[in-house]
Specification:
The complex is a heterodimer of chains A (260) and B (360). Chain A has 260 residues and is an alpha+beta fold. Helices cover 51% and strands 24% of the residues of chain A. In chain A, strands 1, 2, 3, 4, 5, 6, 7 and 8 form an eight-stranded mixed sheet that branches. In chain A, a hairpin with a 4-residue loop joins strand 4 and strand 5. With 360 residues, chain B is mainly alpha-helical. In chain B, 63% of the residues lie in helices and 0% in strands. Chain B has 19 helices and no strands. The chains are: A alpha+beta (260), B mainly alpha (360). At the A-B interface, helix 1 of A face helix 14 and helix 16 of B.
């Protein structure tokens, strides 16, 4: 009888120990699950924050493959938009006001670029580099880029009205557009990366933007862009001029509008 | 990671319609009437395709139903289709997935404990759906290396295309999502799960043989590429009915197919669309002009609206495409707008299906 009692007590003790162990494991599991969920939420927050600096597709690509991903040659249309006379403006305005004015400009221009299926690759001082056809195949990239340029000018007119009402000086933008093959990819170090394009086509687009001052034109496009354009764009051929780093003189076309 | 609540969604562009005969067909075939159906009753071919392309009806031979449903979740999440996303979640719950497991799948398919063949299959369908760029046959090589047959790859490609089709059907006209989301999140689903699972059990029908008529119509070469699988007949029937429907002229439909094929770089699909446009009397130079600039003086008023819109149906944010669709709908009759939605969805699906014919 007493043996049976000992067996019963031992069984109860074992059950108790097993129950305690099960409860401990469950508590640990719950804790781990909570940590996992909180890590997932943190990751999501980081992804959302990162999405402010790079297009969602680029974020996905980096998340899936890391920084050292494939770069490839792409047919892209490159748009440079530079604020004319901004250096002088920078000397006149209080730094905080200057940054507010510049951020307002970039905010509006980025929205216009996105509405026309482009994406802003980077801001270089007061200059904006936008790409069309770099992320997804886009057979209409030249039309999109030139429509975007016209819309950027319209948007700037609107912004200038707002600046004038606040007693601030007016902005003027020069836009240069070129289409060509460039190397597109995620470029940078482990600490700082960006999705951008490199190559001669990018340099030429930057030079064409500079030519807007020479020809006193708001928007200039190269022959490569003109060849793919809808004939309803109103273009004016500009005289060929020498451009640094380019062997031949460069012919450009001023864009005066679009006939609906 | 996208969650349902992150996706902005406009109010619905369509009015529910009635067609007792068609509604009876849906109920009889699927066991339930999906809430989306009533918005497409103006276009019988769309409703019939929704039923015959239902994953449970397809008669898949090489992809099991569980994987097929996971493809639905992956593609809907990737396309940010709020309706299909909620529907996929609800379906997975009906077949026994817990909320936690679904959330885990959503957070990152690559880190969940799915087997490698399933992960690879899902990754492939995501690439087909994204089409940026359209996968080449080389993309299927990895699947072959891990033991998936060519037939299974065809079925996976078709499944991705089917969900691309459903996603556009639901997203373009902003089909209301509340019923599906209530079903997904509410207690009703937990209570009725066994009944719903029984009602929606796979009732594979024999779609019948692939008739010469289905193989020789528009995009017959694509139907032919799936020959030997029951889905070939399903594809052929939907395609045949879509092109036979008199609501939108054949020329307008071919223009939608051509624009979407050009945008996705699908030369096979574009070639077929151009052939169909030539049959309608359009000169090659005019077709070239339309495809180069999405405009031409030869387009009629409806086509001038439809052609640029077709391009928008490929990569989009739901709320943006829904606003564009609303603008387009004001130029068309309700029947025409419903059919345009179906044609744009079908053209997107066709380009994805064409992946099975991509050169080696």
């Amino acid at each position: 009888m007493s043996d049976l009692r000992w067996v019963g007590l031992a069984a109860m003790a074992l059950c108790g120990a097993a129950l305690a162990a099960w409860r401990r494991t469950r508590r640990q599991l719950t804790r781990l699950q909570r940590r996992l969920e909180s890590s997932a939420m943190e990751l999501q927050r980081l992804q959302m924050a990162f999405a402010r600096f790079a297009p969602a597709q680029v974020v996905d690509r980096i998340a899936a493959s890391g920084v050292a991903t494939d770069a490839e040659k792409r047919d892209v249309t490159i748009l440079f938009a530079d604020l004319v006379g901004f250096t002088v403006l920078g000397e006149q305005l209080d730094p905080a006001v200057l940054v507010t004015v510049l951020n307002g400009h970039f905010e509006r221009m980025s929205r216009v670029v996105e509405q026309h299926r482009g994406h802003v690759s980077k801001f270089i001082g007061d200059n904006l580099l936008a790409l069309f056809g770099a992320l997804d195949l886009n057979p209409w990239q030249a039309n999109d880029a030139v429509h975007a340029a016209l819309a950027m000018h319209a948007e700037l007119e609107d912004y200038n009205r707002e600046l004038a009402a606040r007693g601030l000086p007016q902005l003027r933008v020069g836009i240069g557009i070129h289409r060509g093959v460039a190397v597109a990819g995620i470029i940078g170090s482990r600490e700082l990366v960006e999705f951008t394009v490199i190559g001669g086509a990018v340099n030429l687009a930057a030079r064409v933007e500079r030519l807007t001052r020479v020809h006193d034109a708001g928007i200039l496009v190269t022959r490569a862009v003109r060849d793919g354009l809808d004939p309803r764009f109103v273009l004016r051929e500009m005289p060929a001029v020498p451009v640094r780093g380019i062997a031949d003189r460069v012919v450009t076309f001023a864009v005066d509008g679009f006939r609906e | 990671m996208t969650t349902v609540s992150d996706i902005e969604w406009e109010s619905c562009l369509l009015q529910p319609a009635h067609n007792p005969e068609l509604e009876h067909f849906v109920r009889k075939t699927l066991g339930v009437t999906p809430p989306v159906t009533k918005y497409f009753l103006l276009s019988p071919w769309i409703v019939r395709s929704m039923v015959t392309w239902d994953v449970g009806q397809l008669g898949l031979r090489h992809v099991n139903l569980e994987l097929a449903r996971l493809v639905g979740l992956v593609v809907s999440q990737d396309n940010s289709c709020r309706y299909c996303y909620a529907a996929s979640r609800a379906l997975l719950k009906i077949v026994g997935y817990s909320e936690g497991r679904i959330r885990q799948l959503e957070q990152d398919l690559l880190t969940t404990e799915l087997s490698t063949p399933i992960k690879e299959a899902l990754e492939y369908t995501r690439r087909v759906s994204r089409a940026s760029p359209l996968p080449s046959r080389g993309d299927a090589k990895r699947l072959r290396e891990i033991g998936h047959s060519d037939e299974m790859i065809k079925e996976l490609t078709f499944l991705a295309a089917v969900h691309v089709y459903y996603n556009r059907l639901a997203t373009l006209p902003a089909v209301p999502t509340d019923t599906m989301e209530r079903l997904d999140q509410g207690w009703m689903l937990r209570l009725l799960r066994p009944v719903l699972a029984w009602m929606m059990r796979s009732k594979t029908r024999d779609p019948g043989p692939l008739s010469p008529e289905l193989r020789s119509g528009p995009y017959g070469y694509l139907v032919d590429a799936f020959a030997g699988l029951p889905i070939a007949t399903c594809i052929g029937q939907a395609m045949h009915e879509a092109w036979q429907s008199p609501v939108l002229p054949r020329r307008a439909k071919a223009l939608v197919f051509a624009v979407i094929a050009r945008a996705l770089g699908c030369s096979l699909s574009e070639h077929e669309a151009v052939r169909l446009l030539a049959e309608q009397g359009l000169a090659p130079a005019v077709i070239g002009d339309i495809l180069a600039h999405l405009a031409s003086p030869t387009l009629d008023a409806a086509e001038a609206v439809i052609v640029p819109f077709a391009r928008e149906t490929i990569w989009y944010r739901p709320v943006q495409i829904q606003r564009r669709a609303r603008a387009v709908s004001s130029h068309l009759s309700p029947e025409q707008f419903v059919e345009l939605t179906g044609i744009a969805a079908l053209a997107n699906a066709v380009c994805r299906m064409s992946v099975v014919l991509a050169p080696q």
